[in-house]
Write a structure and sequence with these properties.
By secondary structure, the chain is an all-beta fold. Helix content is about 5%, strand content about 45%. The termini are far apart.
Length: about 170
């Protein structure tokens, strides 16, 4: 597969999504997919921040090594994605991401919606919600959330829908 390695960030996240018309990254036609990765365990920046009113759709991507110890120590949330808008992930893998809360994804903005379909979240870490920290609406269908430190899903407020998936072996 192909890999894009992000090497730095402004305002703590490498990629800012601010487009209300929507941004889509679809790697489903790439043989062996596409990985977008950050700085790893010692890193100091998250991969994506989705602003209020913005829309992001990711399909068949791997998001790896976002956030990191310096990022988490600075009180940042969402190692791979901090969602304040509307974000949909289909067939994605999130692994090796870390943050204060929401090791892989923090769904914490005031007007957010997060939907995951057929995704795998494994090997992510946070003090709460190693896989996902959810304080707003969350829909998870046909996903595996396992092997994350800080729990699979950390709960704040807002409705959650889990269907036909696995949330197991999170510590």
């Amino acid at each position: 597969g192909q890999t894009i390695t992000l090497t730095g960030a402004a305002n703590n996240w490498a990629i800012t999504i601010a487009d209300s018309a929507g941004v889509t990254i679809d790697a489903s036609s790439l043989t062996n997919g596409l990985t977008i990765q950050g700085g790893g365990p010692g890193g100091n920046f998250g991969l994506f921040i989705v602003n209020t009113g913005a829309n992001l759709m990711l399909r068949n991507l791997t998001l790896a090594n976002g956030g990191g110890s310096a990022f988490a120590s600075a009180g940042n949330d969402g190692g791979a994605i901090f969602n304040s808008g509307t974000t949909t992930l289909i067939g994605c893998t999130l692994t090796g991401n870390s943050a204060r809360s929401g090791g892989a994804i923090d769904n914490g903005g005031a007007a957010t919606q997060l939907t995951l379909l057929q995704c795998k979240l494994t090997g992510n870490s946070a003090s709460s919600g190693g896989g996902i920290y959810r304080s707003r609406p969350l829909t998870v269908s046909q996903c595996a959330i396992s092997g994350n430190m800080g729990g699979g899903i950390g709960f704040g407020a807002g409705p959650v829908s889990l269907a036909n998936g696995i949330v197991a072996r999170n510590t």
